[in-house]
What does this fold into?
Amino acid sequence: MSQDPIDLDRWRLAELGQQAAMLVHQLRQPLFTIRGLVQLAECDPARAGLHLATARGQLDVLESLVDGWADFSRRPGRMDERFDIRAPVESALVLLRHRGHALGVAVESELGPGFVVRSSLLGVQQAVVNLGQNALDAMDGQPQARLSLRVDGAAIVVEDNGPGLPDAVHDDLFRPFVTTKPKGTGLGLVIARTLVEGCGGQLQLEEARSGVRWRIVLPAAA
It folds into this structure.
């Protein structure tokens, strides 16, 4: 039986609307990063050149998103980069600490000896910032709130002591527009998983004593 053309058009419009919403969510991340880097450059003139150089890299991200808006799963940057897994975490920490300070959330790190992985440095950085930003939003206004980023071999662990995830949403975590935040879109985790898988890795939700713990597992460099 052939599909009703009207139903097909509605499905296409719904799909287009979902992709457009994801694009807007993706655009916000580099814009947030650029804003934070510019503020850091203004407050820290001695390192302004470094902060602005990183901001220029985020402008490249914006350009690639706009150029490839119809291909949401487009992989960010080269996939065969070999780098110390601590590098994207250190870059993410700069922005997350800046935002955490504004929200009264302590942002901690444990980077260890490092480990060489093969992936997309920029894509991994975006995924870490996305997960960290989700955690910060969830802990806004919470006393003694803490976000921790830890390197564990070829994995990055992003953990918080926030309110955690309600059991009711566990089965729908990666569905767009499913969210526990009043003004949330539910796209943060969808994009984070897409970035991680696009970088050749896996995003795993682990049991935590309190809050939420995510593990990003990346392929080791040969």
In short: The chain has one domain: 5-217.
